[in-house]
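Subject: Predicted fold for trans-L-3-hydroxyproline dehydratase, 223 residues

User T.R. writes:
Posting the sequence so we have a shared reference for the thread.
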Amino acid sequence: AVRLRCPCGPVTAFVPWDGHRSGNPVRFHSVPAFAAATDLAIDIPGHGKVVVDIGYGGTFYAFLSASQLGLDVCSSKTRDLVSAASAVTEAVKKQFKLHHPESEDLAFLYGTILTDGKDAFSEEPTTNICVFADEQVDRSPTGSGVTARIALQYHKGLIQLDQTRTFRSSTTGSLFTGKAVKATKFGNYNAVIVEVSGEAFYTGTATFTVEEKDPLKHGFFFK
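User M.O. replies:
I've generated the structure tokens; pasting them so everyone works from the same file.
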């Protein structure tokens, strides 16, 4: 187990280890995830009214099927999906106020995830694309996004605890699995801890150097 302090709170990752090197799949247990809003009617300029869900999985996302915007998450051009998702994000920001149980600094919409609409439990993968921040597109199904989507599906009674779903990225085809492993409370919200699993590989290392003459090399305390 590797415990990480993330901006949203503590997250525990689990990495296979054979005594010589790490392996795959890796997985993590999320912070409490919950449904912030379901079946929320939002007016999208150029598209009219759509119905979105808003889920929290470490950050907030709006979720809706791409078909509501006249698109197909699997076959439409990425540029068209990005433009439509960005329009949803901006509209939701203006029309719905978010609340976080512990930190209002986290009460903002990070992006929109367009799906194929296949939210009911199935052994078959369900596909989505995550458009976040400044119109960036995730290469994966998105860890916090899968967490939030599982929380929404659990809230709606579409999945049960320990039912595993597979999520596919429409951009790269990469796969994550997700399941709700524990029901909990988070403020006034009924929440779940979600386990997300996928492949991970080394992409870089960092080296920190301490010089002997550095007066703060051992750290410091505030009084």
